[in-house]
Each structure stands twice: as C-alpha cells, then as structure tokens.
Amino acid sequence: MSSSPSIVWLRDDLRLADNPALAAAVERAEPIAVVYVLDEQSPGARPLGGASRWWLHHSLTSLARDLEAMGLHLTLRRGSASVVIPELVAELGAGAVYWNRRYGALREVDAALKSRLRAEGLVVKSFGASLLFEPWTITSGSGEPYRVFTPFWRACLASGEPRSPLAAPHAAEGCVIDGDDLDAWALVPTRPDWAAGLRAEWTPGEDGAHARLESFVNDKLALYHRRDEPALEATSRLSPHLRFGELSPHQVWERVHRPLPAEAAMNRAKFLSEIGWREFSYSILFHLPQLARVNVRRDFDAFPWTSPDPTTLEAWQRGRTGIPLVDAGMRQLWTSGWMHNRVRMIVASLLTKNLLIDWRVGEEWFWDTLVDADEASNAASWQWVAGSGADAAPYFRVFNPALQADRFDPDRAYVQRWVPEVDDPEYPAPIVDLAASRREALAAYEVVKAAKAATA
Ligand SMILES: Cc1cc2nc3c(=O)[nH]c(=O)nc-3n(C[C@H](O)[C@H](O)[C@H](O)COP(=O)(O)OP(=O)(O)OC[C@H]3O[C@@H](n4cnc5c(N)ncnc54)[C@H](O)[C@@H]3O)c2cc1C
C-alpha cells in the first residue's frame, strides 16, 4: 500500500516535547516531513530583526539535530507559506498537515490554507501550543475581551487547569525532501560578526531552554520577589526560549507546580502572573493584529510626537544619553540581546515621554536588537509604557531614572557593570532635562485629552 505522508509545519514552536502538532503526526503513523518556512512575503509577515535571526539560526540547528535523533529530517523552505505548503503537499502526495496556532496577522494565512487543503481532501489540524489559555475563551461577562490585566488573569485562572505537557516522541519514520541549506539563509552576522555577546549569554534550542528553566527554579525563583533589581539577575531569562517555542508555557507551569522549597513556593504565583502578562499581550494582539502599528487607545492618534532628531535617537540606541541607568540598559541590550524588565520600562519612558518620540520608533529598535522580540509582548509593552495601550501606565507616570536607580540599583552594581566610565569627566551630561521634559510631556498629553473630549 502506498503511503500518504504527514507534514508538520513548525513556526513558533521549535521543540519536540509538548508539541501537539508533532504528536498528532506521530500518532497518524505515516511517514513525516517536518518543515520550517522562512516567510517574509505573506501579508502581515514581519521580517525578523537581527538578534532574532541569529537566534533562529541556532534554534533550527539544534532542532534539526534533535529531529535526526528520532529519525526525522527538518526541511527548510523560503517563501510565502500559501505557496510553499501546497507545493510540499503536491511533491509528497501528503494526506495530512499539522501545525500549532499563531495569534497575530498571520492567522489569516493559516485559516485560508486550512480551508483550501481541506477542500482538497487533506486532514488539516491546528493545535493550541503556545498559550495556556486560548484568547477567544477568556472574555468578560459581556463577551468582550478584557482590557485590564488583573480581571483577565483572574478569569484565566478560574477557567481551569492548563493541560499537562506532552512527552517528546521517541521515534518516527521520516521523509527526506529537498530544502534550503540553513547557511544560505545568512541569518547569522558575518561582516561584522556582532554576535559575540549573544553567544556568551545564550544557548538557543530545546536543551538550552530546559537547562535555563531548571537553573531558574533551583537557584533563582526563591529570589524572585527581588526581580526588580537588575544587578541581581533574579528573573528566569526564559523569554527568548518562550518566544521561539523551545519551551511551552505548559511545561513552565507544570515545572513550577512540582514541590518547591518554601522560599521558591512563595514566589510561584507572582512568577506565573508574569507568564500571565505574556498571555494578556497575546490576547490584545489577537483582537488587534496591527498592534505594532496601531494605538490600542485611539485617542492617542492625536498625540503630538516629535520627529526624532538622529543624534538624540542614536544616543538613546547606543547608551550615550548621559543618564546612567538608561545607558546601562541600552548597552545591555546592544551587547547581549536582552534587557532587564524594569530597565526596559525606564528606557521606554525616557524615549516616549521625556524625548516625545513615538513608541513605534522604540518598538522597532527593540524588534531588531532583542533576542526575545515578540510580536505581542513587545508592541503591547511599548504601548503600556507610552500610555496608549491596554491597562496602560497612566500617562502622568513618567519614570525618573535617577530615583529608579536609587531604589533598584542602590549600590550601582548594574550601572557600573555596563557603564564603567560613569564617574569619569568624559561621561556626557544628560541629553535632556528630566524635570522640564516631564512638564512638556504632560502638556503634550493635554492634546490627547482635548481630542478625546471633542469626540466624547
Ligand atoms: C518596552 C518593553 C518591551 C518589551 N518587549 C518584550 C518582547 O519583545 N518580548 C518579551 O518576551 N517580553 C518583552 N517585554 C516584557 C519583559 O520585559 C520580558 O518578558 C522580560 O524582561 C523577560 O525576562 P525574563 O524571561 O527573565 O522574565 P521573567 O520575569 O522570568 O518572566 C517569565 C516570562 O514571563 C513573560 N513576561 C514577563 N514579563 C512580561 C511582560 N511584562 N509582558 C509580557 N510577558 C512577560 C516572559 O515570557 C518571561 O520570559 C517588554 C517589556 C517592556 C517594558
């Protein structure tokens, strides 16, 4: 009898364990082709930034190795998914296609493909794998999506225990088909090779993700109540692993629900609520797929952003603002592809409020430089800081970087690490007067209030 292969189309779920699409294909017991499509052409596709491209290269390398060990081959193709997937189906004479869901603009591509392939008689199934709670299942009493985090997360927790993670399949029969050579995609920088800081900090791939989770639970969760201190490194640094789906939130949930020492157990709920912010960001994205371009609060469309002066913008990007905590954060980002959460809020507040530069400019810089650059969390967090987002920080809350440094980096360990010349006479004066620019920001916000009043 001739075989009718299955295709597993991997996207933001670069793992073998707890991968429902892969598990379904293994269960179907026909030869399996596993494919990753580098899609920069589909409507709504956003090309990855530099740091994410570096991560993707290494994550795919690790995934291909793990797949080989269980008898499967990873095929790489480039192009619009709505062309590439049907081509693969035809080449293989495939009978089934499986994938795990996406939640942004690209879900329209998935929906169209699903109807088309089903109409051709294929089995096509999609699964929830990247979120603990599917966004459409969490709605307020009136059936509307939540706009405020606390009731959203309460409703998530009340909706039942997330499913248990699935084990990684041991072995399966694979199909080998032609694909691109990963090196030909040129995802890693060569001239110049700026990735030394990334290599020093990160191990992309499923093994690296689990090692990070274990070391966090064993060594840092007990300190998580001090997570706002950037020098302490008390957070998990799981964000890029979750972004690329090398680890699922279900695996994180399950791991932290195992018995823990008392100090770690005390911090469990707080840590999980941060995972909840990720879920909340995806829920916002699900209801507003243009989240990276469009204000959640439309009254912010009237905000009088200034056009960024290139010298000022570059000083912010490269950590030369003369404001030590901001410079430390921006250099941590530039060097390692990651920045501590509290410092992200402070640098974003400086850009959008003291410098009055549109949050989209900052979002793009983070998109290019963060290894965890995420279509939901990045845009939602920038809008949260700018004041235009769901459950946003009130506009009048302008972070004062000097007070924040006194509070969260009192012995200056974080600043000294990233800005060793901070006390030298050459260290620049601040590029902006914090008190005066705060007053200007509040005046600019009056325009939003006036626009809102006019339409009320
Ligand atoms: C301006 C700005 C931009 C941001 N851009 C991103 C981004 O592109 N990608 C991203 O994953 N996070 C982003 N965040 C959220 C947060 O800063 C990072 O998730 C966090 O710093 C990652 O470090 P961690 O894994 O050690 O976090 P932990 O404190 O260990 O949290 C565990 C996980 O919860 C999730 N999480 C934690 N805080 C948040 C949050 N506020 N919003 C959404 N998810 C959260 C992450 O997946 C994180 O890995 C941004 C925050 C700000 C203020």
Structure description:
With 456 residues, the protein is mainly alpha-helical. It has three domains: 6-129, HUPs (Rossmann fold, 3-Layer(aba) Sandwich); 131-164 and 205-287, Serine Threonine Protein Phosphatase 5, Tetratricopeptide repeat (Alpha Horseshoe); 298-451, DNA Cyclobutane Dipyrimidine Photolyase, subunit A, domain 3 (Orthogonal Bundle), CATH 1.10.579. 47% of the residues lie in helices and 6% in strands. The protein has 19 helices and five strands. It has helices at residues 20-28, 50-69, 81-92, 107-119, 149-158, 196-201, 206-220, 239-243, 249-256, 262-266, 268-287, 310-318, 324-336, 341-354, 359-369, 377-386, 401-408, 413-418, 434-455, and strands spanning 6-10, 32-38, 74-78, 96-100, 123-127. It has a five-stranded parallel beta sheet, with helices on both faces. Helix 14 packs across helix 16. The radius of gyration is 23 Å and the shape is globular. The relative contact order is 0.12.
What is the secondary structure topology, with strand pairs?
Elements: E1 6-10, H1 20-28, E2 32-38, H2 50-69, E3 74-78, H3 81-92, E4 96-100, H4 107-119, E5 123-127, H5 149-158, H6 196-201, H7 206-220, H8 239-243, H9 249-256, H10 262-266, H11 268-287, H12 310-318, H13 324-336, H14 341-354, H15 359-369, H16 377-386, H17 401-408, H18 413-418, H19 434-455
Parallel strand pairs: 1-2, 1-4, 2-3, 4-5
Helix pairs in contact: 3-4, 5-11, 11-16, 13-14, 14-16, 15-16
The protein binds flavin-adenine dinucleotide.
